[in-house]
């Protein structure tokens, strides 16, 4: 904590704490509060830190409300996927996420019935959309709203995959009741005569440290798995929490032996108040390289997320660096065509720091993080 009072910061720790409290909200569920008392890696993810006052990052990495095509709660970036955010709130605020920002507190908390109907008509109108991701906020906070959305998404003939993104299984494992698991499983349908017409529903569960896999949490996702629902684990790479081979190996192995399929390892996004959580992008590549002898055939896909979509990178990938305004950025040519992005996302122009190469593909610049401790000073 001494770094925080380093003279380079020019502010006392107390001033920084007041700044953090003024800018950011704090929320924890009862189960999480109990767990945070027993686990330092969990506490660090939910208890405000003076480091959040460090001047850095953007408040809205993506437009809050995901308001594409004039439909509140709808987002589309890729040809084959649409994202619905029926419920914008979470039962707790992760300190590395933009949800904690007070300036977002006034946003509408949920899609209205009209918003949902408009979004469904939009998805129905484009048979290229095969996957609907229902995310948040957290869709499991309001299961009735989730059921209402599932009832409308499931019958759309061209929808093959429904994915639900959640962290609420950690926050409120008791809410994953047998009835909830059965309700979700209803939206799974195997067509034995024409398998390609089957419909799959799966859960993307965000967990970042093995301490989060408590008996209650494991029982909760096992209730889903026993109903035939695939549960995939997605992890955010967080400095001081899981950025070591031992922490990541323990998490990966526990995922595998309790039935979670490892899915994404996300680099921590450059959101305001999250500077102290961000490692370099290279750090994640190095970790996966070191894990590769252990993880067998199943490991995480490593991605960093920009406003134009995910960038997948794997060990052996050579990152290209450029300096912009004194900061280190990763430059890459993406697999996404600019014309496609503009059409799907209903944007007139690319986001800042993005361009188009001669073949029409988007080039992007992503703000890197740092591994050195002194960046906090
Ligand atoms: S649960 Fe997800 S959306 Fe909610 S605060 Fe945490 S990371 Fe952000």
From TrEMBL:
InterPro entries: Aldolase_TIM, Lys_aminomutase/Glu_NH3_mut, rSAM, rSAM_sf. Its cofactor is pyridoxal 5'-phosphate. It holds the Pfam family Radical_SAM. Residues 76-298 form the Radical SAM core domain. The keyword Cell wall biogenesis/degradation does not apply. Keywords: 4Fe-4S, Iron, Iron-sulfur, Metal-binding, Pyridoxal phosphate, S-adenosyl-L-methionine. SUPFAM superfamilies: Radical SAM enzymes. It comes from the Bacteria. CDD domains: Radical_SAM. One of its GO terms (molecular function) is metal ion binding. This is Lysine 2,3-aminomutase.
